[in-house]
Design goal:
By secondary structure, the protein is of the alpha/beta class. Helices cover 43% and strands 14% of the residues. Helix 2 links the parallel strand 2 and strand 3 (55-58). It starts with 8 loop residues before the first strand and ends in a 10-residue tail after the last helix. The structure holds nicotinamide-adenine-dinucleotide.
Amino acid sequence: MQKRFEDHVVLVTGAGHGIGLAVAARFAEEGARVVINDLDPARAGQAARTARADLSIAADVSDKSQVDAMFDRVEEKYGRLDVLVNNAGNIYAARHFLEGDEQWWDQVLGVNLKGAYLCSHRAAHRMARQRSGVILNMSSGGATRAHRGNVAYDASKGGIEAMTRAMALDLAPYGVRVNAIVPGLIRTYDISDEDAALRGEVVPMGRLGTPEDLAGPTVFLATDDARYITGACLVVDGGVLVQQRSVPLDTFPLSRFPRI
Ligand SMILES: NC(=O)c1ccc[n+]([C@@H]2O[C@H](COP(=O)([O-])OP(=O)(O)OC[C@H]3O[C@@H](n4cnc5c(N)ncnc54)[C@H](O)[C@@H]3O)[C@@H](O)[C@H]2O)c1
């Protein structure tokens, strides 16, 4: 494993589980001093041990005072921040539009969009003073194509992609890059293998994604190899977003084609 982040400080929000945990572990393997954030303190502590992170901080990213306390602590301990991954999100937000209410809307937008704004704002001030830094925002295919019964979630992710582009422009003059990652159907929730195989059939690549499938592409966007990439949305979804019709409708056996 290369050590591309030696002496770099990386903060990953919502890293107590799932994609964030895999991303945090990959940064740590590559030599970074990783700070794991999660709403749930026990999860954050356990994840920090699993990922060999330097520090865990329990905080709700949708609460400004908790976000400020978290960034003050990072500032005090390290005096710098090189990468922020805005990964915290509520993936259990499904409600039909006719069932939604104000509290639901505020909760989902509060974590998924305002949380990313609050963390980015603190991080960007630190990074602009350093004249270097990378902010990565976890989006979703829902930003581009709607999930049924997920209006608040999809609106929050549409906001994430618009915010990514706007932040990229504002921060480029100060050496700070901002990009988004667009995961597909990633198996981070409890489902049976049978169910996973069934869901995997709608993916052109034939399977659900794993959190580890996201780790490499996310880390790549923070490396020097990505130094000229800003304002981009990197889709990591096994082909889901580019397909018009479901797999069985137009996938043919190889034997149908002439041999050349
Ligand atoms: N799993 C997927 O299929 C998928 C697809 C597209 C996008 N995403 C996005 O990827 C990100 C991670 O998703 P996941 O599947 O790993 O989710 P997950 O539920 O496995 O992990 C999310 C973590 O965020 C934490 N969290 C929730 N609210 C928080 C808050 N207010 N402050 C701090 N931490 C909080 C949770 O405790 C949890 O540990 C999310 O932004 C999600 O929207 C996931």
